[in-house]
C-alpha cells in the first residue's frame, strides 16, 4: 500500500510539478504526518524535493537561470563584496557559506586560510576542494545540478546539527523594509535553516539587489547582523537596515 502511494505521489509531481501535504493527504485518505514521512523518504532517495508545506518534482526544482548564467551578472560588484566580507573572517573561525554566486567568490577569497567551511554549495566545493589548509565540510542533500547546490530535507537536517561563528547568506534582493527575498522555492528552506546555525549572519548583496525583488521572504532585517554591499546600494533601504541594528559595510 505504501509503495503504491509513493509511486502515485511521484507520478503526480511529474504531471503537476508541485503538490501540498494537505492535498496529498486528502487524495490518499491518510494523515498529514503519514504524507510528511512519505515525502521525507522520497526526498532522501532523490525522487522529489521537499519544500515547506509540500514537495516539487526534481525537474521543477531546477527551473530558473543556471548558475553559469547568474555568475556573470555584475561580477565586479560581487567580487568587491566578497573581498570585503573575507575581512570579517578570523583565522580559526567556522563559517557557513550559502548557495549562490557571491559565496563562490567569497570562497575563492578564503583560500589558504586556517578556517573551517561548511556548505551545501558545489561551487564552493569546487573553489576549495584542492586547498590543503581550509577544513571543508560538505552538507548532504539532493543535488540540484543547474545551480551547483544541494537542497532538501537532508540539507536542512544537516544544518540543524552544526554551528558556525559566521554564516554568509546570499539572496535575490532586499526589499525597502529590509526583508530578504529569494526567487528559488527549494533553496529558501535551506537559507532559513542556515540562519539558525550561526552566531552572526552576514548578507552578501551587491548594489543591484537594493531594493530588490523575489518570490519568497527568507527573513526580516532582525535576522541579520551585517550586510556587505557596494556604495551604489539604495540609501533608504540601507537606512532601514541600520535602524534595525544591522551593521552596513560597503566595498
UniProtKB/TrEMBL annotation:
- Top-rank taxon of the source lineage equals Bacteria
The record ties this protein, via SUPFAM superfamilies, to:
NagB/RpiA/CoA transferase-like, Winged helix' DNA-binding domain
Could you tell me one molecular function GO term of this UniProt entry? DNA binding
Name the Pfam families on file: DeoRC, HTH_DeoR
Domain HTH deoR-type spans what residues? 2-57
Name the keywords, alphabetized.
DNA-binding, Repressor, Transcription, Transcription regulation
Function field:
Repressor of the lactose catabolism operon. Galactose-6-phosphate is the inducer.
The record's annotation in PANTHER family points to: GLYCEROL-3-PHOSPHATE REGULON REPRESSOR, HTH-TYPE TRANSCRIPTIONAL REGULATOR SRLR-RELATED
Protein name, UniProt field: Lactose phosphotransferase system repressor
Native organism: Terracoccus luteus
